[in-house]
Amino acid sequence: MCRNITTLRGLEPGATAEEIEAAALQYVRKVSGVQSVSAQTAEPVERAVRTIAAATAALLVDLPPRRQPPPSLPPLRRIHPRRPA
Question: What proportion of the chain, given as a percentage, has pLDDT over 90?
Fold first, then answer.
């Protein structure tokens, strides 16, 4: 369903709060169909992201270690080439 959400379990070092929040936002956008936040959708979207991010962080703590690293790096960890100024 959410192909853009990367696997966060098993990262070394562990997933950051920023990575967890980015994944939660992608999930909320996908299930709600809200791609750009408006004044009417801001509060429900932000509340859902906070709730899902907290649940995700708890899940990552509770799961046993992975036997293999995740198949790809999360986008926030990828090295992006600097563009010339």
Answer: 55
Contact 49, 31 (CB under 8 A): no
The residue extents of the domains of the chain are 1-64
Quote the Cα angle for 28-65-6, to 5°: 30
Which DSSP state fits 3? T
- Threshold 0.85, pTM exceeds: no
What distance in Å separates the CA atoms of residue 80 and residue 76, rounded to the nearest whole number? Answer: 9
